[in-house]
């Protein structure tokens, strides 16, 4: 294979397996860097895009999927001064909006979307951070203005967003609780949150037990559907704040309005879809690097190793919810 080509996984039909191909290697345009991808983080959204169930991602076919990546800069485009060949970086690269994703040997990425990889993390670990961390930061910090001492409830605490939300909230000095299934209790507690099994404990019961009936200062919903409705019930009056990264359904705002509480939606893909606000993604990831190097965040990885040829298996695990941590494909 010549230096002008690369190996990549191409999705030609929604719901079909990836096709392993040798294709032209991209060149970095103005403001972009060319990255040799070392690891591609797999998110539930990647699986939904592959299945044709994520119209909001606006990804036409054929496409190379993969939102998250970690790798090494090999070439910089005109106008880029913040990176040089050899820099180890990570971030959200594409896989949406017609942008090439990370399930390939190389990707040309807008330099504003990325940051330097935490020095103390492996490529696999770094690739598991971007989407989850950016979503959690935008919700907790940008929207809800999290403060020390607040009681924070995170729905779906063992997921990629939930893991990062727990760790960010704890780093800010919050008292953190997280719902998830009973088999995820050990993961929740490993990250330092109090586990709540929402399948067996009612909202009113855990609100009474952990907040003496007052409600949580911040409720972060990463699950959607009925869980968002439960969030409206669990939040505190007046200055309580509900955040959701999956607020796509139809919901009654009456429970929230009657409390004079606040709701914010988080749509992490927006900068990649619109081209606006990409610099903020890079700034958030610089915070992630700072926190990782300070020992405040660490992704929990599924111990299984996947490569381009077995990436379909990785996404199937996500669909079946058979993962025991973040899944990463090594390139």
* The CATH homology group name of the largest domain: Medium-chain alcohol dehydrogenases, catalytic domain
Share in helix: 25-40%
User: Which residues form runs of ≥5 with pLDDT under 50?
Assistant: none
CATH class of the largest domain: Alpha Beta
Describe the largest sheet.
Answer: 7 strands, mixed
Subunit structure: Homotetramer.
Domain Enoyl reductase (ER): 15-329
Protein name: Zinc-dependent alcohol dehydrogenase family protein
Main location: cytoplasm
Describe the 3D structure:
Helix 3 crosses helix 10 (278-293). Helices cover 29% and strands 23% of the residues. The strands form three sheets. Strands 3, 4, 5, 6, 7, 14 and 15 form a seven-stranded mixed sheet that branches. Strands 10-9-8-11-12-13 form a six-stranded parallel sheet, sandwiched between helices. The chain folds into two domains: 5-131 and 277-330, Medium-chain alcohol dehydrogenases, catalytic domain (Quinone Oxidoreductase, Chain A, domain 1, Alpha-Beta Complex); 144-265, NAD(P)-binding Rossmann-like Domain (Rossmann fold, 3-Layer(aba) Sandwich), CATH 3.40.50. With 331 residues, the protein is of the alpha/beta class.
Write the SSE topology:
Layout (H helix, E strand, L loop, with lengths): L4 E6 L8 E6 L7 E11 L1 H8 L16 E9 L11 E5 L13 E5 L3 E3 L6 H5 L2 H14 L7 E5 L4 H12 L3 E5 L5 H6 L3 E3 L6 H9 L6 E4 L4 H9 L6 E4 L9 H4 L4 E4 L4 H5 L3 H16 L12 E2 L3 H9 L7 E4 L1
Helix pairs in contact: 1-11, 3-4, 3-10
Quickly list its features:
cytoplasm, ADH-like_N, 11 helices, 2 domains, 7-stranded mixed β-sheet, Quinone Oxidoreductase, Chain A, domain 1, oxidoreductase activity, Zinc-dependent alcohol dehydrogenase family protein, Rossmann fold, 15 strands
């Amino acid at each position: 294979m010549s230096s002008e080509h690369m190996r990549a996984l191409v999705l030609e039909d929604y719901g079909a397996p990836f096709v392993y191909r040798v294709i032209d290697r991209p060149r970095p345009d103005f403001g972009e860097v060319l990255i040799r991808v070392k690891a591609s983080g797999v998110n539930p959204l990647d699986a939904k895009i592959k299945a044709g169930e994520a119209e909001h991602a606006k990804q036409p076919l054929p496409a190379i999927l993969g939102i998250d990546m970690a790798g090494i800069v090999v070439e910089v485009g005109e106008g880029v001064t913040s990176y040089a060949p050899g820099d180890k970086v990570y971030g959200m690269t594409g896989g949406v909006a017609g942008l090439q994703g990370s399930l390939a040997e190389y990707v040309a990425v807008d330099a504003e979307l990325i940051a330097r990889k935490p020095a103390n993390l492996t490529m696999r670990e770094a690739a598991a951070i971007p989407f989850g961390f950016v979503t959690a930061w935008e919700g907790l910090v940008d929207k809800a203005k999290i403060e020390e001492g607040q009681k924070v409830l995170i729905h779906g605490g063992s997921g990629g967003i939930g893991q990062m939300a727990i760790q960010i909230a704890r780093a800010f000095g919050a008292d953190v609780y997280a719902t998830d299934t009973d088999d995820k209790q050990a993961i929740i507690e490993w990250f330092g949150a109090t586990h709540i099994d929402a399948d067996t404990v009612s909202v009113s019961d855990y609100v009474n037990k952990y907040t003496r009936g007052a409600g949580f200062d911040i409720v972060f919903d990463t699950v959607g559907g009925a869980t968002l409705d439960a969030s409206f019930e669990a939040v505190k009056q007046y200055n309580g704040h509900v955040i959701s990264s999956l607020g796509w359904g139809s919901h009654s705002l009456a429970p929230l309005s009657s409390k004079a509480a606040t709701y914010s939606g988080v749509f992490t893909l927006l900068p990649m879809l619109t081209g606006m606000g990409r610099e903020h993604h890079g700034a958030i990831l610089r915070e992630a690097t700072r926190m990782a190097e300070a020992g405040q965040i660490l992704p929990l990885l599924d111990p299984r190793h996947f490569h381009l040829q077995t990436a379909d298996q990785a996404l199937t695990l996500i669909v079946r919810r058979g993962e025991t941590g973040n899944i990463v494909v090594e390139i």
